[in-house]
Amino acid sequence: MRTAKITRKTAETSISVEINLDGTGRYDNQTGIGFFDHMLDQLSRHSLIDFTIRANGDYHIDDHHTVEDTGIALGQALVAALDDKKGIRRYGSCLLPMDDALVRAALDLSGRPFLVWNVTLPTAKIGAFDSELVREFFQALSTHGGITLHVDQLHGINSHHIAEATFKAVARALRDAVETDPRKADAIPSTKGAL
Description:
Elements: E1 3-9, E2 13-20, E3 27-30, H1 34-47, E4 50-57, H2 64-82, E5 91-98, E6 101-108, E7 114-118, E8 125-126, E9 129-130, H3 133-145, E10 148-155, H4 159-178
Parallel strand pairs: 3-4, 7-10
Antiparallel strand pairs: 1-2, 2-4, 5-6, 6-10, 8-9
Helix pairs in contact: 1-4, 2-3
């Protein structure tokens, strides 16, 4: 079973993440941040990775630490569940439309974290959610998941649509990357022999 459970406790947050890479996209996410839960639900549903996430944070300050630390814990869970990465496809990409928004995501589960972020959210807030936290989440996920991640916004005028298209595009790319390659199910997808 390609599953993992990560618990992260700091003076700022308490996060618990459980994932199943071979799931069906079932989710139960409760971070105390409504829009963020909605985005995590999309990430689970469209990656077909089951998520159970619980988070409590220092909301009296803002949502930054909770969003970032959830990204950290989710990245660590991906690393644990992938183990030695034997048999995975490793790469994934998606060009995802959502109404006015069109977002491209491409990723490599290389173990070498790098984020290229060409996304501009036109409003400072999406409801009560700070728009800049979308990037903070993906920076934490990329860094702690060992993911080379490129995200490019090609079109978009509505911040909610752009953000949601981003989560869905990354989800679809992740779905492809974590899947087992039936032609090489017993091999590490690298000429180096390790990722």
